[in-house]
Amino acid sequence: MARRPRAGGGRLVTLTSDVGSAYAAQMKAALIFAGVAPERVIDLAHDLPAHGLREAAFLLREMARGFPPLTVHLAIVDPGVGGRRAPIIIETRSGPILVGPDNGLLVPLAEELGVRAAYRIEPAGLRRRPPVGTTFDGRDLFAPAAALLAEGARPSALGSRVEPRPYSIPEAAPTPVGASGEVLHVDRFGNLITNVPSRWIGSRVSELRFASGKSRLRTVPWTGSYEALGRGVLGALGSSFGLVEIAVGEGRAADRLGAGVGSTVTLAWRRRPAVRGAKANSARPRKRR
């Protein structure tokens, strides 16, 4: 179990949202107003696609992995702000605490970290200024809750126990000749990050047959770097997420293929036979002369 923050210390607070830099600055102000030192507030991303829940849930899980146990992850992609969805806190077995809307956004990360308990935030229990309207819970509700948690408050002190709404990120499926899946993320370079694990392909493959959506299967190189791919060449490689990425060297695969988040992906490949003779010969003891 992670130890509680010491006096004068406190947890890190990360911020992830689709609200842009101006609204994000207001959330930071709310955190600092509530006592969180500015140097303990870390921006993960505020340029996520508006209302893009599936992509945001994937990116939050991937981006938050490397943070220490004493971290509060505050995430806001909240199409139902002000509505019936609950504001929640998820306490994890690994130590980090997650704060955000109960719309599935937090669940993939929480499940990876191990869910200990979840609580519905009760606004009456927060020491905060009166809210302004009902459209910015990130500033008026979630940031004050995250600040209290960062300074040592127990999640159970801020609300009542609940069960988070289930949510899962789609997984790829193996096929007899490859895999089928979908695009989970389009990065700022137009690269298509699929949900197909790159380890399924391995190193004894030099090319893939690839199709996205209703497009025809086409043969593309399977390579290890953008440089090896070459400028303007469409191909595939293993991304930093450990997933198959479709890219164009110094170009935008999303634009060339007309594909985006949720687009289906079909992959087929054939492995080269392993070269065993040289290895076997090298392992055979030499005759003494």
- Going by CATH, the homologous superfamily of the largest domain would be S-adenosyl-l-methionine hydroxide adenosyltransferase, N-terminal
**Termini separation:** 65 Å
Q: Structural class from helices and strands?
A: alpha+beta
Kindly provide the radius of gyration, computed on alpha-carbon positions and rounded to a whole number of angstroms: 23 Å
Tell me what the CATH architecture of the largest domain is. 3-Layer(aba) Sandwich
- Our count of helices gives 7
| Poorly predicted sequence stretches spanning 5 or more consecutive residues | 282-289
In N-to-C order, the SSE pattern is: EHEHEEEHEHEEEEEEHEEHEH
Name of the top-level CATH class of the largest domain: Alpha Beta
Could you give a short account of the major beta sheet?
7 strands, mixed
**CATH topology assignment of the largest domain:** Rossmann fold
Number of domains: 2
Extended strand count:
15
- Integer average pLDDT: 90
- In the sheet with the most strands, the strands line up as 2-1-3-5-4-6-7
**What's the helical proportion of residues?**
10-25%
Strand content: 25-35%
The backbone outline, from C-alpha atoms, is elongated
Short précis:
The chain is α+β, with helices and mostly antiparallel strands. 21% of the residues lie in helices and 30% in strands. It contains seven helices and 15 strands.
